[in-house]
Structure formats: C-alpha cells, structure tokens
Amino acid sequence: MKFSGFPERSEVTSIPAAFFTEVLPAANDLAELKVILSVLRGVKRKKGSPRFLTRGELRATPELWSGLGANDSQREEALTRGLNRAVERGVLLAVSLGGEGGPQTAYFINDPEGRRAVDLARAGAIDLGRPVAPEPQRETKESNIFALYEETIGLLTPTIAEELKEAETAYPPAWVRDAFRVAAESNKRSWRYVHAILDRWTAEGRDDGTDRGHPAAKARRFGGRYGPVVHWR
C-alpha cells in the first residue's frame, strides 16, 4: 500500500535525538527498529509511574504485530529477536516480573525515568506488580473504514480515501461494515458497488426491512455530493 501522506493534525510521538545519531546507524535488524519505536510510543502514551511495556502489550499493538511477519510464528520470533537486540544494545532495560502463568518481563526505555524505575525495582523499593492486561486498541472511524476497504477491495488511493472519509460521516458505521461484507460475499469488490448498496439502503431501507431511509444518511444523500454534515448518536 502506498502511503497517502501525513495528515494536517495527528498525534505526535517524541523520539530522542540520540535514536537518530547513535541507535539508527548501528541497528541492522528491521524487527529491532520496529520494536524500539513501538516501545517509545507505547511508554510515552502511558500515564502514571513507573511506565513500561510487557511482551503481551506489544503483541496487542496491531501496527507492530502485523508488521513483524506473515504469520504468528514469524511474528513471535521477530518480536523475541527485536526485544533481545534492543536490550543488548542498551536501548531498552528489562526487569523480570512475577505473575500468573509464569514470570514476565517489563521493558523500560533507557532514559533517566526508566533507569530510576529499574534501579528502584531491583532494589525492592517499588513493586511493579502484576502487569495489567492491555486495553483493546480503539480504532478511529477513519482507520476502520480504511481497513475495511483494504481488506475487501485492495490498494487505497488518495481520491478513494477522501470519498471514504465523507462516507464515514454520511452513513451509520454498521451500514458501512455490512455493505463491505455484502460486496465481498457477492464478489463485487469495488467501492462503486459498496456505495451503491449504501445509497439503496438510504432510499429503500435495509434488506431486512429495518432502518428505512436513515434520517442522517438521507440528509447527506440529498444535499449535493454527500450533502451537509449531519451528526447523530
């Protein structure tokens, strides 16, 4: 998939300059770089103290996990290799944790905050406790419809991306998911077909007789290309 460009406004992750001057030139393993960047982002997003990530939390990070290999076996091997190399290089610090199902490991960024936490944990001054199960990653509407398009139809283009964003606000999320499903089941894998389904449901109601002419979608459909923006709960 070709990258469509960074949006005007998006979340920003702070990366220490030393990553570019010392870590990047020496690293020669893509899995290590992906793991390091994911830990930097994940730890910085956490609240409270001490801040660290476990292997389970990294496995539950969709953008990392899907990029480590073609199947779970390859991904597990790449995650292990990436973590081990990052710890050996000194970019990450590792502390063993207890817990149900056997010992786990907490991974800290090797910065002043991380070093203080590791020293205190190893001295027994703080109890890292049992790692908390990661909360499911919540996808934005935009990322969700993009994923549906790529899984059902294929390569996303900038023009289609703009139409998908508009459609996301024009139709109920359940309609969008179901329309892509119907297109896949009918082997009609095109955005034109999906959009035709949504238009038909807006005018005539769903095939099961429910949601006839959803008011928000109808207002969008009959007001220009997609009509004025209408928000609903």
Short description:
The protein has 233 residues and is mainly alpha-helical. Helices cover 53% and strands 6% of the residues. It contains eleven helices and three strands; from the N terminus they run H-H-E-H-H-H-E-E-H-H-H-H-H-H.
Intertermini distance? 33 Å
CATH architecture descriptor text of the largest domain? Orthogonal Bundle
Q: Return the CATH topology of the largest domain.
A: Arc Repressor Mutant, subunit A
Give the mean pLDDT: 80
What's the Cα radius of gyration? Answer: 23 Å
The count of helical stretches stands at 11
User: Roughly what percent helix?
Assistant: 40-55%
Number of domains: 2
Would you tell me the structural class of the helices and strands?
mainly alpha
The major pleated sheet works out as: 3 strands, antiparallel
User: Spans with pLDDT under 50 lasting ≥5 residues?
Assistant: 130-143, 215-233
Report the β-strand fraction as a percent range.
Answer: 5-15%
